[in-house]
Amino acid sequence: MKILVLADTECRYFWDHYRPGYLKDYDLIVSCGDLKPEYLSFLVTMGRAPVVYVHGNHDGYYAQRPPEGCVCIEDTVFRYGDLRLAGLGGSYCYSRGAHQYTERQMRARIRKLRPKLWWHKGVDIIVTHAPVRDYGDDQDLPHRGFEAFWKLLENYKPRYLFHGHVHMNYGVGRERIHRYGETELINGYERYVVDLPEYDKYGYKEARG
User: Fold this and answer.
1) What angle do CA 93, 64, 33 make, to 5 degrees?
2) Alpha carbon 93 to its chain's center
3) Which CATH superfamily includes the segment(s) 2-195?
4) Side by side, which strands form the sheet with 28-31?
5) Distance between CA atoms of 127 and 27, rounded to whole angstroms?
6) pTM here?
7) What is the 3-state secondary structure (H, E, C) of the chain?
8) CA-closest candidate to residue 166, choices 34, 31, 16
9) Structural domain spans, the chain
């Protein structure tokens, strides 16, 4: 199973220079926010994979123009076969805009998510927009990560956390991948591919013929 992770800027390979077949290898597409709704709708139309997303801090207009044919996984657990994904989009609050949260507000969102995590017996991938505090974030308030994610990762030990928000071109030598305990943290800026060979294209751990 191949997952295409996207965030923050439209990949010209899949958008401006798209050719038939460019999306054929991907089984699931995950948006970590701040992407045009038309882009996500295009991907779900031209590819064979479902597209799931959370909101970035610049996605306030999704309320009027949501990505058509895509699934919002904010504050819920989305199941794709055996694969469990939980969504907690938005950034640290810096201007009281849409999809901005204080630490207290993010902790409250996580508490409300707990019954769903219990029902699904955990989570494999957490999808956020903001990074984890001190792991790939920046020191300025708009690009600060959430400390609330520390306890979330410690308690549920997901295999991955996908995020965006901090662009890879913000500075030289920026690392895309970090690790917090048992969880690999991946910045999905523009595009990144994650391969899960133990899952089939429908997200099941054992291929069902």
Assistant:
1) 45
2) 19
3) Metallo-dependent phosphatases (3.60.21.10)
4) 71-72, 51-53, 28-31, 2-6, 192-195
5) 17
6) 0.96
7) CEEEEECCCCCCCCCCCCCCCCCCCCCEEEECCCCCHHHHHHHHHHCCCCEEECCCCCCHHHHCCCCCCCEECECCEEEECCEEEEEECCEECCCCCCCEECHHHHHHHHHHHHHHHHHCCCCCEEEECCCECCECCCCCHHHCCECHHHHHHHHHCCCEEEECCCCHHHCCCCCCEEEECCEEEEECCCCEEEECCCCCCCCCCCCCC
8) 34
9) 2-195
The C-alpha angle 23, 43, 53, rounded to 5 degrees, equals 115
Confidence of residue 207 (pLDDT cuts 50, 70, 90): low
pLDDT of residue 198: 96
| 39-74: pLDDT as tens digits | 999 999 999 999 999 999 999 999 999 999 999 999
Q: How far is CA 152 from CA 67, 135, 171, 183, in A?
A: 28, 14, 28, 11
CA–chain centroid gap for 83, Å, is 14
CA angle 55, 61, 62 (to 5 degrees): 50
What 98-101 contacts at long range (C-beta under 8 Å, 24+ apart), as own/partner pairs, is: 98/55, 98/57, 98/59, 98/60, 98/63, 99/33, 99/55, 99/56, 99/57, 99/59, 99/60, 99/129, 100/57, 101/146
Strand partners, 101: 92
Asked if residue 11 has pLDDT above 70, the reply is yes
